[in-house]
Specification:
Layout (H helix, E strand, L loop, with lengths): L2 H5 L1 E8 L5 H12 L19 H6 L6 E7 L2 E7 L7 H10 L2 E7 L6 H12 L3 E7 L1 H6 L5 H23 L6 H7 L25 E5 L4 E3 L1 H12 L3 H7 L5 E3 L4 E3 L14 H18 L6 H9 L6 H4 L4 H12 L2 H12 L3 H12 L12 H18 L9 E11 L26 E11 L1 E3 L3 E5 L15 E5 L3 E5 L2 E5 L1 E3 L3 E5 L9 E4 L18 E7 L5 H14 L4 E4 L5 E5 L2 H15 L4 E3 L6 E5 L5 H4 L11 E4 L5 E9 L2 H9 L1 H9 L20 H20 L5 H15 L2 E5 L6 E4 L18 E2 L5 H6 L4 H8 L10 H22 L11 E9 L10 H25 L2 E15 L3 H10 L3 E7 L5 E9 L6 H8 L5 E11 L11 H7 L9 H13 L11 H9 L2
Parallel strand pairs: 1-3, 1-4, 4-5, 5-6, 28-30
Antiparallel strand pairs: 2-3, 6-7, 8-9, 10-11, 10-19, 11-18, 12-17, 13-14, 13-19, 15-16, 15-18, 20-22, 20-23, 21-22, 24-31, 25-26, 26-30, 27-28, 29-30, 31-33, 31-34, 32-33
The structure holds guanosine-5'-triphosphate and magnesium ion (MG).
The site of magnesium ion has 5 residues, from helix 2.
Length: 1027
């Protein structure tokens, strides 16, 4: 295969919100170009790409799958993806392997939350997007809009989608939920003209299609422009420009004019798009579907466009069949879409050179003088060049990326190879485990792959410069058979060259979820994919019969490999914990486990909801006593059992925005703190923005922005002077960050002692104490320190004393203090859940050891352990003393419901402690869209309950949004007179919500729960009888 062949390839995926018609659209493309795997009559109804039983049953797509199509001289690899939130990881795997994306939007429902998410995904992966406005028929038949109204609506959708993309372009960072809320559509002005070069989607540019996947038709403007050009004798280019936007046709002068130019010619002028495109469509629909429709319109279309339609179809009694017969021949859907793809989406060669900065970001490294690594670098650079150029010659290095592994039963694999030779596709018993065969879903980026070839499998952590120490991250593997994918079907091929999407057998033992394949060790792994959310719904699983434990463990191992998103872990109590993205995903995992992978009956626990712990209060409260820090009584003090170390801790709350930045940037922070190059981009798996610049600088800016926005939002409550003081305080704190926690990257900060601190005022024995000053490691890495200030703070002052034992000891104890902080932030005092958004000021003092045992090495080990425990205990105690609060995760929930079910929907929301943000009537329809926050703890069975109560009319989509502290005090006991009046004297106060949640977590974890178990035994017995 040469370069020419590569130019004839297009790799695209279809992305959209759930139910906007992706699989239906794919059906039509497959029927037309899939080599006969789908009969055109069934197109749109079969949903060929939804071949799993569970997908057909639920009528939603759950995985991404690929099909190879032939259109004219082009090979097109089409990947259909799921729209449901729970399977968003499959969108990431699809996007990584594609060069272009068809972004579908339902013309009635408009832009929804997953539309935002997929636009972001396409943007991050540097795909070339095309917009497809689907379900145009619903505007005619359901909403009964006039062509003019329909035009306004379509225009608004295009405008809104463009707005979202331009926000990404300007690198404004917003999470999907934020951007949805921020974009809450203010009324768009009429007559938007969008022919600015910068605007992404423009119908006149040919990257917007208007389609009805159900009836199998669709068009781009060029089709109409060409038709009218010949009819009116005008130029196609001029017409193309005139067919979108406020352009009118003056019938007298036969000119394309602005609105003014129509004065005196027509009373109610309509834009050309309405007059020339929508009106005829509306007429055909009316002619076909309405009783008294003018049937001559159909004949006119058939004649004008010379359509050959079998009379059998035209005489069909069902008007829908007649309509489809005419429309699908007049404006065949597959032609419009695929010609758009061929024209707008780049071939793999051009696409890869544009995507290279995302796929294989340029590395910065130190060349050492051994000369050894310079060879490695030279080769790795060569490999990168070949990927950039999509070199498909056979002597180019082979590079492929596997975006997921999927399981296929052995009996489904082809039995014959490319030359009809028998393939030995029997269960090889890979690890003696199962009848499932694992295939890698991969795209070749350089060179030619063939079966039997030996390749290196590189994990995301592999670094070719680190040689031997990297053995764990690289393996050698031999490729099994290669297949082109035809949905469920697999077509064996000998080899496949750069630019193609294939399935590869034989890597099951080597790859868990994703990996880079390369013919040389000297190659960087591709950057990791971005996932929209992390798996958050966790359940514990055990076999109904304990004897089946072995089968369950095997099953979990297989499931973990077969599903790109599921996570299997073991809890501290030894339970097997399965984490999934949401309820639908979880259900499918359990079903797969029971029926395919483990084949045993299982018990599934209720969801293990995660919480966090924090304290109440605003950060600025510390202004009041900032002077008194450490002199007042605000701190907690702990002494180690040997009395040699006193730890003082004060806790305060971080500004909310800062907590969020730290949380969102965990991956970048991890890289920065570990000291990896700060110039890598987009290697994150969470919501980090993608930038091509310096990630340290970006992060620093976001942190500063967070502080500024906090100060700004406080300006209403604080006078100018105090606001300024508050700002200064935080800027100073930013220079004093010793560590973040938990796990070095969490949203909690450990601050080094204040410069002025140093002497323990109550040093009772009159001994001289030493303050362990710590070092502002994190501040330095983030670039908040100038070198000079750094030194003055970090170095223990009198260097002459450094050799003295207490100073050496102080140096050595630093790590114990950080460890204590890490432990404390990993498990808070309420119910051992991680802490959230707190800063700890620490002042550790040690006293010189005068005892005999001082210099025995094991004594030191014990002492450092004691210090660690003391720090941990002090942090926990400090939280407990400062109004501790439980923090719960919230879903952002988007609901759609017909007006008559609004009441039932609100009832369901109320039962789930939901907070409604906005409700909005969808223009021109009887549907309401409601946005609300629902606590994760209350979300189980939410969608089901909603369906039951609204007879299936309302739908809900949940996206993990943010963490929110419960305002209730879990330890609340009525104290003031008013409280006692309201709640009683405390003996019979029912535990409040925070307490209940906290206790349920404690019980689950086997922690002691303070509860009055039985109060009035006799009474309780009679009550309990009723069951
Ligand atoms: N009226 C109308 N309905 C359509 C059209 N296209 C698709 N539908 C219907 O919309 C529903 C969803 O279609 P799918 O193709 O399964 O949607 P999807 O985007 O693949 O959904 P997921 O994969 O679950 O995200 C089906 O009932 C289709 O019949 C259209 O152009 N007009
Ligand atoms: Mg689908």
């Amino acid at each position: 295969m040469g370069e020419a062949a590569c130019r004839q390839i297009r790799n695209i995926c279809i992305l959209a919100h759930v139910d906007h018609g992706k699989t239906t659209l794919a059906d039509h493309l497959i029927a037309a170009c899939g080599g006969g795997v789908l009969h055109p009559k069934l197109a749109g109804r079969l949903r060929f790409m939804d071949y799993l039983d569970e997908e057909q049953r639920r009528a939603i797509t759950m995985k991404s799958s690929s099909i190879a199509l032939r259109y004219k001289d082009f090979s097109i690899n089409l990947i259909d993806s799921p729209g449901h939130m729970d399977f968003c990881s499959e969108v990431s795997t699809a996007a990584r392997l594609s060069d272009g994306a068809l972004i579908l939007v339902d013309a009635v429902e408009g832009v929804h939350i997953q539309t935002h998410a997929v636009l972001r995904q396409a943007w991050v992966e540097k795909l070339t997007p095309c917009l497809v406005l689907n379900k145009i028929d619903r505007l005619i038949t359901e909403l009964k809009l006039s062509p003019m109204e329909a035009y306004n609506r379509l225009q608004r959708i295009v405008h809104e989608v463009n707005g979202i993309v331009s926000a990404y372009k300007s690198e404004k960072y917003l999470s999907d939920v934020d951007s949805l809320l921020a974009g809450a559509a203010g009324e768009v002005e009429q007559e938007l003209v969008e022919d600015d070069e910068e605007v992404m989607f423009q119908p006149q540019k040919g990257n917007v299609a208007f389609v009805c996947a159900l009836d199998g038709w669709g068009f781009c403007l060029s089709q109409f422009a060409e038709f009218y050009a010949s009819k009116l004798g005008a130029s196609t280019t001029a017409l193309l420009k005139g067919l979108w936007g406020p352009r009118y046709y003056n019938t007298k002068t036969m000119m394309i004019v602005g609105k003014k130019g129509t004065e005196g010619v027509s009373k109610d002028p309509q834009p050309m798009f309405v007059q020339f495109v929508l009106r005829p469509l509306w007429q055909v629909y009316q002619a076909a579907l309405e009783e008294d429709g003018d049937k001559r319109m159909l004949d006119k279309v058939i004649k004008t466009f010379n359509l050959s339609i079998p009379p059998r179809e035209l005489q069909n009694k069902d008007p829908r069949v007649v309509l489809q017969a005419v429309m699908s021949r007049w404006l065949p859907l597959s032609d419009s879409i695929l010609s758009m793809v061929v024209n707008c989406v780049p071939d793999p060669g051009s696409a890869q050179s544009a995507r290279i900065s995302r796929l294989l970001p340029k590395r910065e490294f130190m060349v050492d003088d051994t000369g050894l690594s310079s060879d490695v670098i030279a080769e790795a650079e060569h490999v990168r060049k070949c990927v950039e150029a999509c070199d498909s010659t056979s002597d180019a290095p082979c590079v492929a990326f596997v975006s997921k592994m999927f399981a296929v039963p052995y009996k489904m694999l082809p039995q014959r190879g490319p030359n009809r030779e028998a393939l030995n596709n029997q269960p090889t018993g890979e690890g003696g485990e199962s009848e499932e065969c694992f295939l890698a879903f991969a795209r070749i980026f350089s060179g030619v792959l063939h079966s039997g070839q030996k390749v290196f499998v590189l994990s995301a952590l592999y670094d070719p410069l680190k040689g031997e120490s990297m053995q764990r991250h690289v393996q050698e593997a031999e490729l099994g058979h290669l297949y082109l994918m035809m949905g469920q079907g697999l077509k064996p091929v000998f080899s496949a060259s750069a630019g193609n999407v294939v399935a590869i057998q034989g890597l099951g033992q080597h790859i868990l979820k994703s990996a880079t394949l390369s013919s040389t060790r000297n190659c960087w792994p591709f950057s990791s994919m971005m996932f929209q959310v992390a798996p958050t719904l966790r359940v514990a699983i055990e076999p109904s019969d304990p004897a089946d434990m072995g089968a369950l463990m095997r099953g979990l191992r297989l499931l973990n490999r077969a599903d790109p998103f599921v996570e299997v872990t073991v809890s501290s109590r030894g339970e097997q914990v399965l984490s999934a993205a949401g309820e639908v995903h979880l259900e499918r995992c359990i079903k797969d486990l029971k029926e395919r992978f483990a084949k045993v009956s299982l018990e599934v626990s209720p969801p293990l909801v995660s919480y966090k712990e924090t304290i109440e209060g605003e950060g600025f409260a510390l202004l009041e006593n900032s002077k008194a820090l450490f002199s007042g009584t605000e701190h907690v003090e702990k002494t180690t059992p040997n009395g040699r170390c006193i730890i003082r801790i004060q806790v305060m709350k971080l500004p909310g925005a800062l907590t969020k930045v730290l949380e969102d940037s965990a991956d970048i922070l991890g890289d920065i703190i570990e000291g990896k190059s700060g110039k890598r981009n987009g290697s994150s798996s969470s919501n980090t923005p993608v930038d091509d610049g310096d990630s340290v600088a970006t992060l620093r800016k976001r942190i500063i922005d967070a502080i500024e926005s906090e100060v700004e939002s406080l300006s209403a409550q604080l006078d100018k002077e105090r606001a300024e003081k508050y700002r200064k305080l935080w800027y100073r704190f930013l220079q004093r960050i010793w560590s973040l926690g938990p796990r070095q990257v969490g949203p909690n900060i450990l601050l080094i002692p204040h410069l002025k601190a140093g002497n323990l005022d109550n040093s009772s024995q009159g001994q001289k104490n030493i303050l362990i000053r710590g070092s502002c490691d994190v501040s330095r890495r983030l670039g908040f320190l100038d070198v000079e200030t750094d030194d003055t703070i970090a170095v223990v002052e009198e260097s002459k004393e450094e050799t003295e034992s207490p100073y050496v000891e102080a140096e050595a104890l630093k790590s114990s203090i950080v460890s204590g902080f890490q432990l404390a932030t990993a498990a808070g005092p309420l119910c051992d859940e991680p802490l959230w958004g707190l800063a700890f000021l620490v002042e550790p003092y040690i006293f010189p050891d005068s005892s005999e045992t001082a210099h025995q090495p094991d004594q030191y080990g014990i002492f450092s352990g004691q210090v660690m425990t003391a720090v941990k205990e002090a942090c926990r105690a400090a939280v407990l003393q400062n109004k501790p609060r439980l923090v719960e995760a919230m879903y952002f929930c988007e609901l759609n419901t017909p007006t008559e079910y609004l009441g039932s929907m609100y009832a369901v929301l109320a039962r789930r402690r939901a907070r409604v943000l906005k409700e909005e009537m969808q223009e021109g329809s009887a549907l309401f869209t409601v946005h609300a926050y629902v606590p994760v703890a209350e979300s189980l069975g939410f969608a089901d309950e909603l369906r039951r109560w609204t007879s299936g009319a309302a739908s809900a989509l949940l996206v993990l949004s943010h963490w929110e502290a419960l305002s209730e005090d879990p330890f609340f006991v009525p104290k003031t007179e008013e409280e006692i009046e309201e709640f009683g004297d405390g003996s019979s106060v029912p535990p409040n919500l925070a307490r209940k949640l906290m206790n349920s977590v404690r019980r689950r974890k086997g922690l002691p729960v303070e509860e009055k178990v039985v109060q009035h035994a006799t009474k309780q017995r009679t009550l309990a009888r009723k069951v």
